[in-house]
Amino acid sequence: MNRFAKYAALLALAAIAAPVMSAPQAQPDSQTADFSALDADFAKWMAEAHVLGLVWGVVKDGKLVHVKAMGVQTVEDKAPVTPDTAFRIASMTKAFTGYSILKLRDEGKLRLDDPVSKYVPDTRGWAKGITVNDLLHHTAGFVTDDPWGDRQQPLPEAEFTKMLKAGVPFSTTPGTRYEYSNFGFALLGRIVSNVSKQDYAKRVDATVLKPLGMASTRYEVRDVPPDKLAMGYRWENDTWSREPVMSHGAFGAMGGLVTTGTDYAKWIGYLLSAWPARDGAPQSAKTIRAMQYGGGILHSRRRPGKEGDNCRLSAIYGAGLVQANDCILGNVLFHGGGFPGYGSHMLLLPEAGVGVFALTNRTYAGPSAPVWDAATALLKAGFIAPRALASTPALDTGYAAARRIWKAGGVEGEGKYLAMNFAMDRSDANWRKHLIELSTKSGACDDSPAIIASSLLSGRFSWTCAGGVVEGNVLLAPTPTPQIQALGFQLIPKP
Q1: 368-380 and 35-49 helices cross at what angle (nearest 10)?
Q2: Which of 145, 276, 386, 465 could form a disulfide with 351 if both were Cys (CB 3.0 to 4.6 A apart)?
């Protein structure tokens, strides 16, 4: 059987099993989306990338609204992948480590600007000037070490201690450049252990996994029931061969976590719960939001997926998550994972409350392209949209003044609601001239729609008029009582 026929046979088996693979945890969403087309895109990517097994999912407003398992866990017995199949997620583990460091910071047990040697005395001889922040944001001056770092996964803690005492060479001066380092995150794992006085894996289990009900997630791959584990394979010489199973060790903090699609969706939902920011939210929400910023160095990278040639990302590495402003999706947080035998990717659209992820069992088969393409398709289909902010009494007061100004054709008499700069920026006479010109062209308008808040002190509105649509915006000043510092009206004529 040639390689393509072999792969087709495996996919056919998965397709036969697919009806039984639906996860009961997935909840239908009120907005429909053509997930079947996206399932087909992932299946096509699997075939082209020679990926044996995959599970991908979409989380929206805390619910797993779609999950699809494809392919097989093992070549030998061809057991089909399910949403409860366990995959190693490689560097997507770093978000759990970054969160753990920030949580210790919030508990007052460490400072991010402290030297690493304060918490890991073994580094005193060589790590001068390197801070905890430098490790979090990959600015410690260590060399990029993906292939080497991955193979250090099972390194015993005692051997890691010897490595820390001996020191490592620098690639750049600490604090001057972004350079991705698995060694740096392994060192963060040691900090978590030393500061919390708990084993790193046990600390994450107690503070993250158990509270979120992630009972099938662990650091020791050998503890996964064999019938639940997607074995890791590499594609080489037109065939699959098993990668060695590496047990948990000192480098687990950089890439050792093993989880399922069903479990990982809970972590995605937890991260997304930090948005929108609101008064009275738990401290954990602030900790999560801190994972997207703080001390990193801006760098450019190619956008994954079909739109990659049209849009580069200006990205910053936060604390286990990469933050960027995408030309299509807007503000995004993401991270990939590559490991001998595994590849994974996750993408969050925090303002929309949506996350997309995929886990695979082929060496370095990062599914970033289909994940970003799926998010892009869902956005274009209207399934993904920024969540509306609630208006505030102050903004409603400003909007009411804007309505009166429009109807009166001038700003006279509204001085109580206008900031001191308002008359300086445009005179009353010019405001009257501008409003008369617009209202003459627009004709009668329906100004009943509520204002759409963009913040607690700003918003936009849209009125349907006889001659077109009036688009407007209100921006309040930082004054004790509501006062408009900027007001705009623009007519979009009928075609």
Answers
A1: 160
A2: 386
